[in-house]
């Protein structure tokens, strides 16, 4: 009579921990579900004499991703991400982060605006510095 009691206790707690483990797993799947769909992506991009290395000129992300572009440049300049219409001043030698959520799909060029350019100082006839491609999910 005294033997089955500790055995039962052991089985009971094993079942309980199994149940709580599957609940933990279910919760983890629910919590991880949303971030698994949208990634947070950081790109370090170096501008030298107004140019980005060819390997970094095309940036591919997916719709909904949180995109962080970390720029460094040997010259101070202003970046313009078209479509999203974000302008960022990059000061030579400092890291400047241009962050956005890729809610719109398509192909979006990043242009350099001369630092001293006023409201009308676009120079879009130049090839883009880099291109962001946002793919639909
Ligand atoms: Cu522009």
Describe the structure.
This protein is of the alpha/beta class and 137 residues long. 25% of the residues lie in helices and 37% in strands. A five-stranded mixed β-sheet has the order 2-8-7-4-5, with no helix packed on it. Strands 1-3-6 form a three-stranded mixed β-sheet, with no helix packed on it. Strand 4 (77-81) and strand 5 form a beta hairpin. The protein starts with a helix and ends with a strand. 15% of the residues are buried. It binds copper (II) ion. The site of copper (II) ion has 5 residues, from strand 7.
Any descriptors?
137 residues; three-stranded mixed beta sheet; 8 strands; five-stranded mixed beta sheet; elongated; binds copper (II) ion; alpha/beta; 1 helix; 37% strand
Quick gist of this model?
With 137 residues, this protein is of the alpha/beta class.
Round the Cα radius of gyration to an integer and report it: 25 Å
The small-molecule ligands in this entry are: copper (II) ion
Our estimate of the beta-strand percent is: 35-45%
Largest sheet, spatial ordering of strands: 2-8-7-4-5
Mean pLDDT: 81
Structural class: alpha/beta
Order of helix and strand elements from N to C terminus = HEEEEEEEE
| Overall helicity | 10-25%
Number of strands: 8
Q: Distance N terminus to C terminus? A: 62 Å
Low-pLDDT sequence parts: none
**Distinct helical segment count:** 1
For the largest beta-sheet, the strand count, sense and barrel status come to: 5 strands, mixed
Label the overall shape.
Answer: elongated
